């Protein structure tokens, strides 16, 4: 695996892949890799396809008081994991390479970015859209792979790709979980020994509510139950929301695909999760 830190060298590597008739997949990450990231690499693999993984802790998607300074950085370990997974290129630019002096452009995707985490973390998705657009222009992939755990992020990226005619296939990979159901996340390392067992209340609360709604139960009652489960476990809730799985609008029309999303804090750690609502659950 090549580790590349300059855009000119990255473009040379991509040009060599193209000259050999190979396609390119991009797996964007912020490092601190775990099995969920490796699942993205595995999903990207195809005969004749090269895989580029990026590691860049993007300062533009962290707000005031968020965990930019303490966000885990462990490139040596991440590099070993990517090599074992069969990645071809690690694209690991410095902040100065990504945002050189005088950088003045921001991409904003309205609609899908307005509520949920967009409301809880103002400016977050502008930072996400801007850095992902830059990664797309730097790597110029045929396909880019993202996890469904960051479901709103995935929706923002899909909207941006459609609106700006990037011509890139966006592949969403189902959330990878621990044995007890907790979604894999780089931020899970922040949970202490007392918090970690209680964190599983997040996927459990969503699962219970999603099954109740899928069986035709009262939505308000199911949502109140999720709130109660999370509060009992010690979470401070940012939101629990039932939305249209494509537009992320609340109060979706009958017959539309549904997704239940939540964000909540346990101690100093903010966790997010989501589950699909199967309206055939009663069948």
From TrEMBL:
Judged by the first EC level, this protein's enzyme class is ligase
Write out the pathway annotation from the protein's UniProt entry.
Cofactor biosynthesis; (R)-pantothenate biosynthesis; (R)-pantothenate from (R)-pantoate and beta-alanine: step 1/1
Provide the reaction this enzyme catalyses. Answer: (R)-pantoate + beta-alanine + ATP = (R)-pantothenate + AMP + diphosphate + H(+)
Miscellaneous comment in the UniProt entry for this protein: The reaction proceeds by a bi uni uni bi ping pong mechanism.
Q: Which HAMAP family match?
A: PanC (MF_00158)
Quaternary structure and partners? Homodimer.
Q: What is this protein called?
A: Pantothenate synthetase
**Species whose genome carries this gene:** Sphingomonas panacis
